[in-house]
Description:
The chain has eight helices and 16 strands. With 300 residues, it is an alpha+beta fold. Strands 7, 8, 9, 10, 11, 12, 13, 14 and 15 form a nine-stranded mixed sheet that branches. A seven-stranded antiparallel sheet has the order 2-1-6-5-3-4-16. α6 (209-220) packs across α8 (268-280). The structure holds 3-[O-phosphonopyridoxyl]--amino-benzoic acid. The site of 3-[O-phosphonopyridoxyl]--amino-benzoic acid has 16 residues, from α6 and β13.
Amino acid sequence: MDVYIDGKFYPKADAKISVFDHGLLYGDGIFEGIRVYNNCIFKLDEHLERLEYSAKGIAMELPWSRKEIADATVESCRRNGIVNGYIRMVVTRGVGDLGLSPRNCSKPTLIIIADTIKLYPEEFYKNGIKLITVPTRRMNVAALPPMIKSLNYLNNILAKIEALQHGFHECLLLNDQGYVSECSGDNLFLIHKGRLLTPASYAGALVGITRQSVMEIAAQLKLPMVETNLTRYDVFNADEAFLTGSAAEVVPVIELDGRQIGAGKPGKITGKILEAFRKKVTKDGTHIKPVLKKKTPAKK
Ligand code: PXG
């Protein structure tokens, strides 16, 4: 596997960055996680737009155009023969001196890893996942806005550790006011009386690309969609629940804190959304290879 770093490709073993890179020293940087489905880099443009927003959020000027990053991404997939996979794109503040100031960092570093991904066990999609609310709260929007997909993931990792310690794969994080924010690396949706509900980003949720795709699907299916404050009470009383993420896709949630949600099995509307999502992923995006048109047989 070859990894892209600042305009060059390096074999995996030689793909290294400086210990003076502020991405490592201070978590000063941003990233994206992007799926590839059947040669289609799903919503690449939307991911790159979010990367630009994250860069603005941390006062970093990206020295590359969106097209330049997109071309490097496509090339990373081609070179590694990725047809179905996962792209991890990282932009660090770059190499600097010791000390917080980014002013002594000469230029940002762009890393693109195009690899395959281990999917969640099929069991999660068939039977649903159980969540636990963890004590760690999602950080406040005024501290580090959770809309920024930054390299500071300790808030999420602490939550994940708490979930794992209790035997759960995924958890629910509340914000400092006690409202539902999201899972450790996924957004949460509820379905109540035919309406889709999800926390707004200012409640501590990342503006997920899969979340946005689900909103598009809801519009197609004519499901009313509301971004609102939600509490655990709303989760307990939901008819259905599911989580979304580039890696997770759409996973039904059947339980929170030992309490059954709805019928305690993946719901019908969740199933419809998952089905629509699976159709969407090979269409909405940037194709790695030009799509070959089928030859129409010559008329006799
Ligand atoms: N919330 C958080 C905190 C996330 O990090 C999502 C929601 C879902 O967003 P998308 O755009 O993927 O629908 C994420 C997703 C990784 C990795 O290693 C990336 C995420 C989560 C976990 C691992 O690349 N980001």
